[in-house]
Design brief:
Elements lengths: L1 H7 L4 H8 L3 E9 L5 E9 L1 H10 L5 H12 L1 H13 L4 E10 L5 E9 L21 E9 L2 E9 L10 H14 L4 E7 L3 E5 L3 E3 L2 E7 H7 L1 E9 L2
Parallel strand pairs: 1-7
Antiparallel strand pairs: 1-2, 2-4, 3-4, 5-6, 6-11, 7-10, 8-11, 9-10
């Protein structure tokens, strides 16, 4: 979620609220093995207006940074190479494929297929999309057996930007602005577990498959996300 805060710091709210509306959506499809390893297909969709807005905002940068930024923005190869390098530098993660797709509505989708040796690695995988930005937010993933049950928790907590830790009113306004900017975008999280689901806070379930769905506006407003499930052997 830090990728959104980076964009926010560049954007005048009154000028870009409509442009950014629904410009980004994220889908994560994860399949887990009993030993905790697994695979994920992550799809990040950028609306065509996103590129226009970011190109306009690049004028705020100094000239030494602007050229490299625009190259990265418009080049799928640069974006994918940096993303793959970030994934490959994370122990326990291996990229199997990464590619881009031009959608019929002129949006652009990036698809990353990778495997991991432990479910806890999915907590850092979205951060590998970023190439720069502020200090990491806190994402904690736990997956362990307790008695006859297997417990899963994915907890994301956004860090308050430097300088705002003691200013609740400004922080609240920033969250409100972020929520408005990203209204319409969706964050969908699907996990196929090799166990029976006892209980969860998912939006829907089918066998061992759980689906969570948030609006990105909701996540920006809350600054946190918690996925949880109690599972057991079939």
């Amino acid at each position: 979620m830090r990728m959104f805060k980076k964009f926010y710091l560049l954007i005048p709210l009154t000028a870009c609220a409509l442009i950014l509306s629904s410009c980004i959506s994220i889908n994560r499809n994860i399949s887990i093995n009993k030993d905790g390893s697994g695979t994920e297909i992550m799809t990040i969709k950028f609306d065509k207006m996103f590129y226009s807005m970011m190109a306009s905002m690049s004028t705020l940068m100094d000239s030494s940074r602007r050229h490299g930024y625009l190259d990265s923005l418009y080049s799928d190869e640069v974006f994918m190479d940096k993303t793959k390098d970030n994934y490959d530098s994370t122990p326990g993660i291996k990229v199997n494929d990464i590619f881009s797709v031009k959608d019929p509505d002129s949006s652009n989708s990036f698809v990353i297929k990778y495997e991991f040796d432990s479910l806890i690695k999915i907590g850092s995988s979205l951060d590998n999309i970023k190439t720069s930005g502020p200090a990491a937010d806190q994402t904690t993933v736990t997956y362990y057996r307790e008695g006859n049950n297997i417990l899963f928790n994915y907890i994301y907590q956004e860090n308050t930007p430097p300088g705002l830790q003691n200013n609740d009113s400004v922080n609240a306004e920033m969250r409100k602005g972020m929520a408005e900017l990203f209204k319409g975008g969706n964050f969908n999280f699907e996990i196929q577990f090799p166990y029976e689901v006892v209980s969860s806070n998912a939006n829907s379930s089918e066998g061992g498959k759980l689906k969570w769905s948030y609006s990105i506006s909701e996540l920006m407003s809350m600054g946190q996300m918690k996925l949880e499930a109690v599972l057991k052997e079939y």
